[in-house]
Design goal:
The complex is a heterodimer of chains A (about 260) and B (about 240).
Chain A: H1 2-13, H2 16-35, H3 39-68, H4 70-77, H5 83-113, H6 117-143, H7 147-175, H8 182-189, H9 193-202, H10 212-222, H11 225-251
Helix pairs in contact in A: 1-5, 2-3, 2-5, 3-5, 3-6, 3-7, 3-9, 5-6, 5-11, 6-7, 6-9, 6-11, 8-10, 9-11
Chain B: E1 2-11, E2 14-24, E3 29-33, H1 40-47, E4 55-60, E5 63-64, E6 75-78, H2 90-101, H3 110-114, H4 130-143, E7 148-152, H5 160-175, E8 179-183, H6 187-190, E9 196-201, E10 204-210, H7 211-218, H8 223-234
Parallel strand pairs in B: 3-8, 3-9, 6-7, 7-8
Antiparallel strand pairs in B: 1-2, 1-4, 4-5, 9-10
Classes of the chains: A mainly alpha (about 260), B alpha/beta (about 240).
């Protein structure tokens, strides 16, 4: 298993797109921190960039990489290797390289300017987000045989998680404005890893004071250590469930 | 060595394998012949565990291959179109396969030498021609001294010299007691190689005969002519 992970990581880290992605994150982080006089504000701007770019790059890159590796996977399947080992090694390889890219691009600048609990949470959620969207990409590739369809599905999924979902939530909020929605909102936020990450980090920042009553309810829940544990558990299951399901599908897939 | 019992496989509405049963033994060189889309590659892929049959069982040395992977240690497979990671060099691909198989000691490097692959070790896979990739695939199939060789259209892209060398290698491996399964449309290539013929059509196994039987039944000396006769009689 380790051997395949090693080959996947060396292959991806040589990939131009990953190098450009890392460079972009580096430039964005450093410029955001040097533009704002308040580092905490800088972190907030960086958060908005990360929540758009990281899922997008993770899901699209992983999908394309998997479709380009079809022949490599076929080659591995004809060798004395378990299918589960092949699939999980590919996933680990991709997840590791995307996490490394994120850590170099965002982690290092954040550690330089904001080496505290908030910065640390942000690096961790960024890495988890990278892995979650790689896992979702695996789901898309195992379901769709056709490359164009698979990439389309990946883009739709990204669009859903970063834009459409918020629209739906707003719609619900306005429709049911007469009812107390604060508690259901917590449940709703677990359905979207991007939202959950955003809440998780915003609550650590001072701006959470401006989020009104919902913000207070959120703070009440996510601010406690139980809430924090709960949200990390939810994020983890966003990784484990797609990976588990796609591994099961891959085990009986015809190549 | 390999026994297939009642294999069925459907892709959507298309029945690719229809109640295929047969068995293959050691020291044989078996040709899988049939028109395009007759299910030859699917059959090979089922033996390799790349395609999972809807029903039926495949046993390898007496063990069922379902949910088993170790048996593939005994198989050398050369795909129809070998494609490898673009960014890797030939040397890295060979190294990776050795790594995966975990065998470094006794390797069969005859074909690597014969095709002088050692001069190309630093070439990236994406820069190689189709024929060179075929050579790499062939060398990889034989490298780990497997007891079964599965070759899917092996001679299609090879130049005449390489093709001759390759055929000699196949014959010498068969004489060592190995089982060679080979599909090809170039029947003249198969003539001096094969000992048995499996003929498939529309996913059905039409017959599995030895060369002598086929010669006797069709009254033709050359494989090309006997198969042509079979094909024409089955074409309607």
């Amino acid at each position: 298993m380790n051997k395949i992970i090693k080959y996947v990581i060396t292959d991806i880290l040589r990939n131009k797109i990953v190098v450009i992605y890392t460079g972009f994150l580096l430039v964005a982080s450093f410029s955001v921190f040097s533009l704002e006089d308040n580092n905490s504000k800088g972190l907030l701007s960086l958060l908005n960039i990360i929540l758009i770019v990281v899922p997008l790059v993770s899901i699209i890159f992983s999908t394309i990489y998997m479709y380009n590796s079809v022949e490599f996977i076929e080659l591995l399947v004809s060798q004395p290797l378990k299918r589960r080992t092949i699939w999980l090694s590919l996933f680990m390889g991709l997840a590791c390289s995307l996490s490394i890219a994120f850590f170099i691009g965002v982690g290092i600048p954040v550690l330089i300017y904001q080496a505290n609990w908030i910065g640390f949470t942000m690096i961790l959620t960024g890495i988890i987000l990278s892995i979650i969207f790689a896992a979702i990409a695996f789901l898309a590739t195992v379901k769709m045989r056709d490359k164009a369809k698979g990439i389309g599905a990946a883009i739709m999924l990204w669009l859903y998680f970063s834009l459409l979902f918020d629209g739906l939530v707003l719609f619900l909020l306005f429709q049911f404005a007469d009812y107390p929605l604060e508690k259901p909102m917590i449940a709703l936020s677990t359905l979207n890893p991007i939202d959950l990450s955003r809440i998780l980090i915003l609550l650590q920042l001072d701006v959470s004071a401006m989020m009104g009553y919902t913000g207070a309810v959120f703070k009440d829940f996510f601010g406690t250590s139980t809430g924090l544990m709960f949200s990390f558990f939810v994020l983890l299951s966003w990784i484990l469930l797609p990976v588990w399901y796609s591994t099961r599908k891959f085990n009986s897939k015809d190549l | 060595m390999i026994t297939l019992k009642n294999i069925n496989k459907q892709f959507g509405k298309l029945k690719v394998l229809d109640h295929v049963s047969t068995s293959c033994d050691q020291s044989e060189c078996i040709a899988l012949i049939g028109p395009n889309g007759s299910g030859k590659t699917t059959l090979i892929k089922s033996i390799l565990g790349m395609v999972i049959p809807d029903s039926g069982s495949i046993t390898f040395n007496g063990k069922n291959i379902a949910n088993n992977y170790q048996y593939r240690d005994e198989i050398g497979y050369m795909p129809q179109i070998g494609r490898y990671p673009d960014n890797m060099t030939i040397g890295q691909v060979l190294g990776m396969m050795k790594d995966i198989r975990g065998k470094s000691g006794e390797l069969d490097e005859d074909l690597i030498k014969a095709f002088s692959i050692n001069n190309l070790l630093n070439k990236r896979m994406r820069t190689l021609s189709g024929g060179t990739i075929q050579k790499v695939s062939a060398a990889l199939a034989f490298l780990f001294k497997p007891s079964v060789l599965i070759l899917d259209e092996p001679t299609a892209g090879l130049d005449p010299v390489a093709s001759e060398l390759f055929k000699e290698k196949i014959i010498s491996e068969k004489d060592k007691g190995k089982l060679v399964l080979i599909t090809s449309h170039i029947l003249s290539d198969l003539d001096d190689l094969v000992t048995r013929i499996i003929y498939m059509q529309d996913g059905k196994l039409v017959f599995h005969k030895s060369m002598e039987e086929l010669r006797r039944d069709t009254g033709e000396e050359r494989l090309v002519k006997s198969i042509a006769q079979v094909m024409i009689s089955n074409y309607e």
